[in-house]
Amino acid sequence: MSAQLAPETIQLVKATVPALRQHGLAITQKMYEHLFKNEEIRDLFNQSHQGANGSQPKALAQAILAYAENIENLGALALAVERIAQKHAGLNILPEHYPFVANALLQAISDILGDAASDDILKAWGEAYWFLANILIGREAEIYRETATVPGGWAGWRPFVIEKVEPESSVICSFYLRPQDGGAVISHKPGQYLTVLLQGDGLPPLKRNYTISCAPNGRYYRITVKREGRASTWLHEHAAAGTVLEVSPPAGDFHLDVGQSEPIVLVSGGVGLTPMVSMLETVAEKRPDLPTWYVHGALNGAVHAMGSHVRGLAQRSPNIDVKVFYADATSAVGEAGGCDEEGLISADWLHRNTPSDRATYFLCGPKPFLRDIAVGLRDAGVSPDRIRYEFFGPADDLLAA
Q: ∠ at Cα 39 (37, 42), nearest 5°?
């Protein structure tokens, strides 16, 4: 692989930026159409994110545009590249899969742009694709080596047995997973996720990411799942103690640095609490000196999960401050402790009630919720490098101008 792209390749790729702004989504939709003609490749992807209204084609169109716009300054894409590599590692994407994507992408560019997709343009995009692909392949190889060689590590899929299932609210359950071989597990970074392969009982192979909702312990993982969508509904309706699931190693770039010295604010909506509970358990166990705010929003007490557990952690750790918002406090039933605030979490409330001049904010929840809070915090003067977020689905830049 060359150290950098040729200047003429860079010029040709940058020349396609206006076309990508206008036709990027059509190109990525067509690309997936070509790609999924191969069933083996199709099964690598979460199909719920595909289709005309799916989030994956939109996210990929944004990523391709960002690549073209920053092709002279790829350092600006470092965080995005890391996130993609982590996602790929969770799905067990291998070097032999990349040529299928290259062929589908170039064919889609040709299909959508027609005569404007000259041989020179297609050649330039082919070179640009493989330049970035080789960066990803190299990083993914590093991730695979790391997760296979650390204590409790493994490569590829590993069978885990559901040890127990615990209801957490009317719509959320926790599943405790232990390796079928009885061995240890990787001590994940608080905030990371597992990729789970579901199959059997007439179910087509489904791959889904579920955040680990417990602190690292070397023995088991806990995933806490809301009943929505085909895969999560299957878990709620069919998975029980003794069910075997195939699981790939923990992945993800959204996680707590246990050595963090400045205060942290954990902000979540709905089932977005899962990485926050993992972080909070870790703080309570390993960093009780760290000033920590846990701010969670739920519709009401019936759907509020793990509230008693969180308040118990706060009672044992004087530096943990818990605040719970219910959008509908009049039906606040089913959760010990109830709520502290009625309404929705806002960036203004966070700015006034947490140390916004020095804290790092970790955000997880529905995309509109995240965008409002992330943009609001930024506009209130919080540095973007202190606003970290994770949401369920393809990566997006919530703070893009």
A: 85
17, 30, 37, 276 from 106: Cα distances, Å: 15, 10, 15, 41
> How much is the pTM?
0.90
pLDDT at residue 336 tops 60: no
Geometric angle at alpha carbon 181, from 92 and 88, rounded to 5°? 10
* Alpha helix ranges (H) inside 16-174: 17-35, 39-42, 55-69, 78-91, 98-113, 119-149
Q: Of the ranges 1-10, 243-252, 357-366, which one carries the lowest mean pLDDT score?
A: 1-10
Report yes or no: 292 and 282 within 8 Å, Cβ to Cβ. Answer: no
**If you ran DSSP here, which 8-state letter would residue 212 be given?**
B
Catalytic residues: 98, 140
DSSP string across 169-209 = SSSEEEEEEEETT------PPTT-EEEEEEEETTEEEEEEE
C-alpha to C-alpha distance for 197 and 247, rounded to whole angstroms: 6
Give the rounded distance of the alpha carbon of 106 from its chain centre.
27
> Is the alpha carbon torsion for 213, 347, 63, 264 positive or negative?
negative
Average pLDDT over residues 57-67: 91
